[in-house]
Amino acid sequence: MSDPGAAEQPNPYGSGQPAQAAVRRVRIPHLQAMKTEGRRWAMLTAYDMYSAQIFDEAGIPALLVGDSAGNNVYGYETTVPVTVDELLPLVRAVSTNTKRALVIADLPFGSYGGTLEQGFATAVRFMKEGLAHAVKLEGGRAMAPLCELLTTAGIPVMAHVGFTPQSEHQLGGYRVQGRGDAADALVDEARALESAGAFAVVLEMVPAPVAARVTEVLSIPTVGIGAGSGTDAQVLVWSDFAGLRAGRAPRFVKKYADLRGILTEAAQAYAADVASGAFPAAEHSFEE
């Protein structure tokens, strides 16, 4: 049965056009359909109810509760220290405060790389306790058995190759992956993950021609971050794209706002009003 109000709703796939069907929640087939139709889509990270609500209402079709919360919520130097117990409340906050977006939870470092049983148990926690709709894991061909186990058990998997932040110490820091002779190996890794059942593959810090090649050979969507414009989708950390964090942003980040500047000015204005006695005024106070 069609929804008479569907035409007035924002398209949950992020095209900016009115929805043509009453899609209550973006699902994996919708993302796959956009690949087939050549329509690109955006993904952002989210870690709390307000960012989740805003991005959901803006029509972002997929939200990633990333282990990047280690850097952007908890203040760690890398993503490595963040734990399952630290991420679960963030995933639940995002999942329960969205109506349309597909919510994907990162499996943090050390929670899935030991055994298949460990990875399965971690993924189940994010689905049951975090209310995630899918999980994401980092790694190439070595992750194919876990990817196959999870997808067979009904847990959708987004894969992640190229630069994998959880392995930054082994990789020698933030370095572009897949250059030169390594390009073929990266393509093969992405293919292996597709064969294992992954519904999408994140390509991070990969040369643009290599990412475009992976996108062409895979039937599932590719999601780029520092991988050029030839992928099916793009993802950014929301505090980067909104200008919330200080310091130099990665080369692949485009800043769409200056929230740090806006909040700084607001805090300074508030402090000045308190110091001068301008706040609270009569309209902010209660009478007897």
Automatic annotation (TrEMBL):
It is found in: Cytoplasm. One of its GO terms (cellular component) is cytoplasm. It catalyses: (6R)-5,10-methylene-5,6,7,8-tetrahydrofolate + 3-methyl-2-oxobutanoate + H2O = 2-dehydropantoate + (6S)-5,6,7,8-tetrahydrofolate. GO terms for molecular function: 3-methyl-2-oxobutanoate hydroxymethyltransferase activity; magnesium ion binding. Its EC number is 2.1.2.11. The keyword Metal-binding applies. Belongs to the PanB family. Homodecamer; pentamer of dimers. Keywords: Cytoplasm, Magnesium, Metal-binding, Pantothenate biosynthesis, Transferase. Binds 1 Mg(2+) ion per subunit. It is an enzyme of class 2 (transferase). Its main location: cytoplasm. This is 3-methyl-2-oxobutanoate hydroxymethyltransferase. Pfam families: Pantoate_transf. 3-methyl-2-oxobutanoate binds at residues 67-68, 106, 136. The gene is panB. Residues 1-20 are annotated as: Disordered. It comes from Intrasporangium calvum (strain ATCC 23552 / DSM 43043 / JCM 3097 / NBRC 12989 / NCIMB 10167 / NRRL B-3866 / 7 KIP). GO terms for biological process: pantothenate biosynthetic process. Mg(2+) binds at residues 67, 106, 138. SUPFAM superfamilies: Phosphoenolpyruvate/pyruvate domain. HAMAP family: PanB. Pathway: Cofactor biosynthesis; (R)-pantothenate biosynthesis; (R)-pantoate from 3-methyl-2-oxobutanoate: step 1/2. Its cofactor is Mg(2+). Catalyzes the reversible reaction in which hydroxymethyl group from 5,10-methylenetetrahydrofolate is transferred onto alpha-ketoisovalerate to form ketopantoate. The active site is at residue 204. It comes from the Bacteria.
